[in-house]
Amino acid sequence: MKKIEAIIKPFKLEEVKEALATLEISGMTITEVKGYGRQQGHTELYRGAEYVVDFIPKLKIELAVTEEMVDEVVQKIAAAAKTGKIGDGKIFVSSLEKIIRIRTLEEDREAI
Amino acid sequence: MKKIEAIIKPFKLEEVKEALATLEISGMTITEVKGYGRQQGHTELYRGAEYVVDFIPKLKIELAVTEEMVDEVVQKIAAAAKTGKIGDGKIFVSSLEKIIRIRTLEEDREAI
Amino acid sequence: MKKIEAIIKPFKLEEVKEALATLEISGMTITEVKGYGRQQGHTELYRGAEYVVDFIPKLKIELAVTEEMVDEVVQKIAAAAKTGKIGDGKIFVSSLEKIIRIRTLEEDREAI
Amino acid sequence: MENLADVSYVLNTFFALFAMVLIIFMVPGFAMLEAGLVRSKNVTAVLTVNTMIYAVASLAFLLVGYSLAFGSWENDSMSKWAAFLFQMAFVGKVINIMSGGVSERIRVLPLALFGVIMSAFIYPVVVNVSWGADFLAGTFLDLEMYDLAGSSVIHSTGGWALLAAILITGARRGKYTKEGRIRAIPASNIPLVTLGAFLLWIGWFGFNGGSVGSIASKESADAVALTIMNTNTAGLAGALSAALIMYIQYKKFDITMILNGALGGLVAITAGPNLYDIYTPLLIGAIGATLVVFAVPFFDRLRIDDPVGALSVHLVNGIWGTIAVGIFSDKSLLLQLKGIIVVALFAFVASYVVLYVINKLIPLRVSQEDEYDGLDLAECGMESYPEFVKS
Amino acid sequence: MENLADVSYVLNTFFALFAMVLIIFMVPGFAMLEAGLVRSKNVTAVLTVNTMIYAVASLAFLLVGYSLAFGSWENDSMSKWAAFLFQMAFVGKVINIMSGGVSERIRVLPLALFGVIMSAFIYPVVVNVSWGADFLAGTFLDLEMYDLAGSSVIHSTGGWALLAAILITGARRGKYTKEGRIRAIPASNIPLVTLGAFLLWIGWFGFNGGSVGSIASKESADAVALTIMNTNTAGLAGALSAALIMYIQYKKFDITMILNGALGGLVAITAGPNLYDIYTPLLIGAIGATLVVFAVPFFDRLRIDDPVGALSVHLVNGIWGTIAVGIFSDKSLLLQLKGIIVVALFAFVASYVVLYVINKLIPLRVSQEDEYDGLDLAECGMESYPEFVKS
Amino acid sequence: MENLADVSYVLNTFFALFAMVLIIFMVPGFAMLEAGLVRSKNVTAVLTVNTMIYAVASLAFLLVGYSLAFGSWENDSMSKWAAFLFQMAFVGKVINIMSGGVSERIRVLPLALFGVIMSAFIYPVVVNVSWGADFLAGTFLDLEMYDLAGSSVIHSTGGWALLAAILITGARRGKYTKEGRIRAIPASNIPLVTLGAFLLWIGWFGFNGGSVGSIASKESADAVALTIMNTNTAGLAGALSAALIMYIQYKKFDITMILNGALGGLVAITAGPNLYDIYTPLLIGAIGATLVVFAVPFFDRLRIDDPVGALSVHLVNGIWGTIAVGIFSDKSLLLQLKGIIVVALFAFVASYVVLYVINKLIPLRVSQEDEYDGLDLAECGMESYPEFVKS
Ligand SMILES: Nc1ncnc2c1ncn2[C@@H]1O[C@H](COP(=O)(O)OP(=O)(O)O)[C@@H](O)[C@H]1O
Ligand SMILES: Nc1ncnc2c1ncn2[C@@H]1O[C@H](COP(=O)(O)OP(=O)(O)O)[C@@H](O)[C@H]1O
Ligand SMILES: Nc1ncnc2c1ncn2[C@@H]1O[C@H](COP(=O)(O)OP(=O)(O)O)[C@@H](O)[C@H]1O
After folding, report:
1. Is F21 on the interface with C (CB under 8 A)?
2. HSE (CB half, 13 Å, CA atoms) of D137?
């Protein structure tokens, strides 16, 4: 089993969710994160002084999938999350040794 | 060394913490996340219109442990976090190549 | 490629960021987390009753790097985040199988 | 003091100042209500709009509008400055009503410009023909309706301006999906909504009580007290009715609807709180709240996107309150209806034209990207709650 | 105006309206205080309860309670509508006192029902025998205590009702652990707590000042001013005393306790602010705050779970304030004690019976799951701060 | 009532109480403004400081300061208690002005101590020689400036005390970097800032209106109404001017600056709102706001760290307002300048010495670690928003 972690622009969540639904993937976990990268932060103003906020809100989507689905899922996410502008984010794939569904104690494939 | 990530229902944190204390595990890192899965989100009302909030608050517990403790820890967490109802969450196990304790620069087993 | 996750004290972020900048690492993802460990939580007061808040705010830095940079990055982070007092945090290194940059679909080294 | 006439003058001045202060509580009232109802990325912008409106509308009224409305500053029954202040306290409200309903997409600058024109010209003309110098007196267009504290003059005028503004600017992106679904966009801060609604409610005591015009005789004092009592009763009945309707429909107490119901009742009573016995306001307020509860989804079905429910509260109940005077008092229903129509035509057309022209010069609406990121950054460069992690 | 009697009538009417408006600020005052003190998952529910109470209690008092309390609406010294409004402003407070202390577990509907009965019957009876028509005059149960603005009539009545409600509904889950530990459940929003406390404080000026009943003579004006001054002084002394006690114990300034100390001082002075010289309130307020500081943990040890400290503030200091009149003025201590006991018996028993019956029909308490998820979702279907990530 | 003199007495008492109540709204006003402007880790501490100041300053003024300032409590024109309450309402403001500017680093206890000395001695002396018993009458140091409601007496005094406090405590850590950069430390809660600013604005009506001293004649009533009107106009002009300057510079509407501009205008008008025609306040307010907009970065360049902009609002405009009287009315500019200098010397030196001594006994400043973690934990042991995840 693999774990896919995707850092995306927050407003793309809905589209990514819909794209994954077409693969019948219905489970995922979302975290609010802040990203730092090539994308420049925006300028804010405070009492007559401008300053740069360099951490930009992003969403991290975490997803456990079976080996054979990895490529398709990654592609779908990338397609749905893409705007073509700087700051679109990254997808990381790593390996999972075990998955357990707490409710049933099912393991691995059955647990996804 | 292994990394255990458990997505649980937030109100189970106290019990999981106590369960882990019996194994003398005293370190962990908690993140507020939102989960999407089989569990249906709840319905909210806003000015006369009902709508579904489909992301449900969950907690992610991250835990670095030695190889030999993995099974026990996973079992304890699963037992403590279980309600038997949909949405209890998942546990993921993956492998860690290195751990460093920043304070002392100890590594691996000593760093946990 | 490797993934480095560092749990640090929040006020050390600026220094860590600067240390990484010297390695020309400009991308990272930050999450607000809560830590539980050897470091004691602080005491709060509420209407005449004292109580202990045992989860302490920490930051998690996630960083994808190439193999050859891992050691240097880990060292820099550890040096910058260190106060020498309990609760300085941990660094975890694990392996990544794939990285995709969503904007360009570049992979792995090019995607970092 | 030399004689009882002086005592009257002093009492009326003092009372007008008291009433005016209560109305000024509606400035933070509207600001908190609207800041609570919008998403957190638009809160600073909403607060800025409210502050700017108070500034530009009051100044335009001071420099131009007041003279236009009343012809002269002279006043025998109270200090002319107090009389001005009381009237000045009204003018921002007309624009607040309008600005709230186009929140989350309208820019500050063109809105402020519209505020200037509204309070220097459009609103003063409405006041002129209803409460003021009445330059149309004797003509066919003369407004002879009874409207003590402005169900039509204030609330409908603001409501029609809002309708014009919504038609020109359009709905918030994402409110209505391509598939025709209406998406709920929940309020970000319910305590602020509640605080704002109660500040408005308290302001209403000054608004309506002060509109009696004098407190300096037994009869006037009675009229003032009855006015405040009936005002409050209509608000109470509105809150309760909205609560019951929502509870029956959803088995839930929807506080935003309960507060909107209260405000709807308050708007509805405003045309004639001094005309009714103490029980009629129960009915007027209850009907007002019912109208709100059904108007909110009705406007949504028409894809008229009003994030704070201002059309349902102010326009619908401004009309209902003006009609109610014709039904529950001895005033002529016909004249009330005529008043409603004249105000509608003038306020809507004038606002539409002005907004249309402004929109050509300075677009009312923010860009798509700015709307997504929130108006706080685009318009003010400042987040409302920068430290709180948002989801 | 025709003569000085009219001037008095007008002044008293105006002053009663002024006082009433200040008291209405206590509606958002209680709402913000309680919304700040509960966890964010129960904030919308608390705000809804406060709004519903204002609506149902005032309407029940208008339709039934006021006549029951005072026998007649007639009034010579001021507009009868102003006199009503002033009294109406009180009634919701009695129930606010009670509702705050059962926050985070009580359902809106049965609470609103209790509000109706409280303000239509229970509270009017207490008023009847103390300030009102006095149907027990001459009998053994007649209340002859001195209680200017309601240390007993308002605050103790509300406090006894709260005690009944807590005994019937029980503590919040998790407040007292199986091992006997008392868990602190911190306030979610300290600025709201502070705002609410100061709105209450300001409302108190109207509450106590207005209770003097007239401002229309030199003596009355002096009495009103002294009343407001002493009211304020007791609040100040309460705040300072609570601060010192907490600082000595914990080396920390616990703002929730400081504000509760101020409120305790305000409750304690309420029975006789016009009776004391300007220094006595220092003592009365300081003792009031001390009682609060020690009562809060005391009730916790008894496992009487009161999330906002209403018992310590209102019940304990309602009693203390009523006694203080017997100690620091020439009123009979015995009659004061008798008043305390009669109010205690009647208010507690009547509230207990009514709540007991309601509880059988519509359970007061939410289900365990709803309590865990928060009353906002279960009762209102609406989160208070939906965008802020919560921990 | 027996005669017209009694009517005057009653009216003046009632009006003083009304004015005092408005000023007390400035207590939550300052508290909300400052709680909104600081980072969320220092919010509880700021609220605690504001509450403590109200308590200790008012009590010290009651026990010592008032007699020192006015010599006697006697009063013919209104109830002496009302006269006291009105003056008491001022005293906390002087210290609020000062405490806001040293937020996020100053400890509660020494600040409260300073509050006692300020309100028992320093401020009463300033009042004595300006509005009060005038023990220096006839001497060279006598203050003969005109300062109706305290541009100098209140705002400059508070501002000089603040300057002394900042010089002694230093800037917040991290505000000025080693490389000489000025870091922006954004406000944590913009709705609270806005609410606070409007509560202050409303309080100002009481502050300035009440300072006329009487409402009980046609002339007085006119003076009061004009005072309130001009006060408001200066605030409006201040808000608008700040908005325009910021918009021209940054194409953004910076609400914190707009509100500070309004407050600057309000401070500037305070010395003589009754002296001007209705247009002069436009100019005075606009200049006031301009001064604020340029003073804020100016103080930052001097590394004088004032998180809420109190120096720019209160000190700079206190001086400007006092000068404005000399320019726009027939009062002597020279006497105004002399007044400014005497107040500056006395208030700054006295505050500096007292703070210096206190600092030796109980350090004003929190430790570096406590400052990093936030004063809420160190000073109050209580987070302001414990459930919201912070970034
Ligand atoms: N090396 C990295 N490790 C972890 N996260 C990264 C890394 N580089 C970028 N990110 C994340 O991806 C987001 C987008 O990266 P950025 O460089 O701004 O644009 P792009 O993805 O278009 O190259 C960042 O905000 C950050 O959250
Ligand atoms: N494939 C997945 N990858 C990552 N997280 C998942 C996945 N499936 C479920 N989750 C997480 O587990 C939580 C519970 O899953 P759900 O399907 O609702 O119930 P259950 O665990 O009882 O099967 C979800 O809210 C989500 O956070
Ligand atoms: N076994 C663990 N797994 C995951 N995170 C841990 C573990 N132990 C500690 N941490 C994280 O590291 C932080 C610091 O650990 P702590 O034991 O307090 O101090 P130190 O790092 O100095 O030994 C904790 O707050 C927690 O977030």
Report:
1. no
2. 7
Nearest chain C Cα to E298, which residue? Answer: C48
| 3-class secondary structure, E159 | helix
Q: How far apart are the first and last CA of chain A?
A: 9
For the residues F256-266, what does the mean pLDDT come to? 98
- How does pLDDT run across F213-234, given as a tens digit for each residue? 999 999 999 999 999 999 999 9
- Compute the distance from residue B38 Cα to the ligand 2 centre, in Å: 7
**pLDDT top residue among C69 and E111:** E111
Per-residue pLDDT tens digits for E279-302? 999 999 999 999 999 999 999 999
**Residues 6 or more apart from F357 whose CB is under 8 A from it?**
none
pTM (predicted TM-score): 0.95
pLDDT in tens, F151-178: 999 999 999 999 999 999 999 999 998 8
D151 to D80, D148, D158, D318, D343: CA distances (angstroms): 25, 8, 10, 4, 11
Q: What is the pLDDT of residue D343?
A: 96
* pLDDT, greater one: E313 or F369: E313
Which ligand is in closest contact with the Cα of A59? Answer: 1
pLDDT score at E1: 64
- Partner-chain residue, chosen from F372, F383, F391, that has the shortest CB–CB distance to C44: F383
Whether residue E45 lies within 8 A of chain B, CB to CB, comes out as no
For the segment E131-160, the average pLDDT, to the nearest whole number, is: 92
Q: Which of D9, D12, D21 to mutate to probe the F interface, most F CBs <10 Å?
A: D21
Closest B-chain CA to E381: B44
pLDDT of amino acid D1? 63
A107/D217: higher pLDDT? D217
DSSP-assigned letter for residue C33: E
pLDDT digits (tens, 9 = 90+) for D8-18: 999 999 999 99
F113 neighbors F250 (Cβ within 8 angstroms): no
Please state, in angstroms and rounded to a whole number, the distance separating the CA atoms of residues B104 and C82.
9
Region D325-351: what's the mean pLDDT? 97
At residue C40 the predicted structure's pLDDT band, cuts being 50, 70 and 90, is: confident
Nearest residue to E224 (alpha-carbon basis) of E236, E237, E213: E213
Nearest CA to ligand 1 atom 21: A89
Residue of E nearest to D227 (CA): E81
- Per DSSP, the three-state class of C102 is coil
Q: Which of B41, A74, E380 is nearest to D247 (CA)?
A: E380
Pocket of ligand 3 contains residue C87 by CB under 6 Å: yes
For chain A, say whether D382 makes contact (Cβ under 8 Å). yes
Residue with tokens 């541009």: F151
pLDDT at C112: 80
Q: Where are the alpha helices (DSSP H) in chain C?
A: 13-22, 70-81
Which one of the ligands is nearest to A35 CA? 1
Other C-beta atoms closer than 10 Å to the C-beta of E361 total: 8
Residue A28 Cβ < 6 Å to ligand 1? no
For strands B42-46 and B49-53, give the pairing: antiparallel
Compute CA F303 distance to the chain's CA centroid, rounded to the nearest angstrom: 22
**Is the complex ipTM higher than 0.85?**
yes
Measured in angstroms, how far is the CA atom of residue A35 from the centroid of ligand 1? 6
